[in-house]
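Q: what sequence does this backbone want?
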């Protein structure tokens, strides 16, 4: 596999999704690539935090708060009725029953909410891991395709960009190194050039807050696109380019 291809395997490696041969190649690559080492460490830490979030225990203070409030609430004074003490005892028992029921309901609601939160966190973590794995698989297929071709160019401030296209897969992957963070409130957006008409190909995401390495599977098929571009857009992206391109690159034929 080429050096450009090895740069794209950080996500799959962090999730232990690489075949043995590719894993060994990538681990040798890690010894020479500081950017990939940082990216792997950040992805692994994120996966660990997601796993811990799904297993978070119920807050200890919930039970203690309920029990504390039970002991401090004043009991209502006994009512006087023609039936005397029997009414007093029933009133106290009814009051205690209401308090006990309220405590049980509070505990049930609190623990039930925590259980729902844990389930949602676990489901979202699995969905994110599945999406990352699918994207890593698609990137690997593009880079390993027999007809994969590359084209490289210089971006702003000396950053380097490489686009890899597989016509058989009808997909493209863009890799950038040395690219500074987008300005605050802005994102980098990729575009396919369909004969002069720019078609959105998705947003670029850095590997972490300190990373200058990007690996992006372009959204959608290549179709008849002959080139691609990069622009700076408002957060969330734009339907059409709103700024001059940082770079325009021809797709390899």
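A:
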């Amino acid at each position: 596999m080429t050096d450009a291809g090895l740069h794209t395997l950080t996500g799959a490696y962090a999730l232990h999704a690489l075949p043995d041969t590719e894993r060994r190649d990538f681990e040798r690559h890690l010894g020479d690539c500081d950017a990939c080492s940082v990216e792997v460490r950040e992805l692994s830490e994120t996966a660990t935090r997601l796993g811990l979030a799904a297993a978070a225990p119920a807050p200890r203070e919930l039970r203690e708060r309920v029990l504390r409030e039970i002991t401090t609430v004043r009991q209502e004074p006994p009512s006087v009725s023609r039936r005397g003490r029997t009414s007093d005892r029933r009133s106290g028992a009814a009051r205690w029953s209401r308090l006990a029921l309220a405590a049980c309901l509070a505990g049930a609601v609190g623990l039930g909410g925590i259980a729902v939160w844990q389930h949602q966190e676990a489901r979202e973590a699995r969905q994110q891991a599945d999406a990352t794995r699918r994207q890593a698989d698609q990137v690997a297929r593009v880079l390993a395709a027999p007809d994969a071709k590359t084209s490289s160019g210089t971006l702003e401030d000396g950053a380097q960009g490489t686009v890899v296209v597989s016509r058989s897969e009808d997909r493209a992957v863009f890799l950038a190194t040395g690219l500074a963070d987008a300005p605050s409130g802005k994102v980098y957006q990729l575009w396919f050039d369909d004969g002069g008409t720019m078609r959105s190909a998705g947003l670029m995401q850095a590997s972490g807050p300190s990373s200058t390495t990007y690996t992006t599977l372009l959204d959608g098929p290549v179709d008849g696109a002959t080139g691609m571009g990069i622009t700076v857009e408002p957060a969330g992206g734009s339907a059409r380019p709103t700024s001059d391109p940082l770079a325009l690159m021809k797709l390899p034929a």
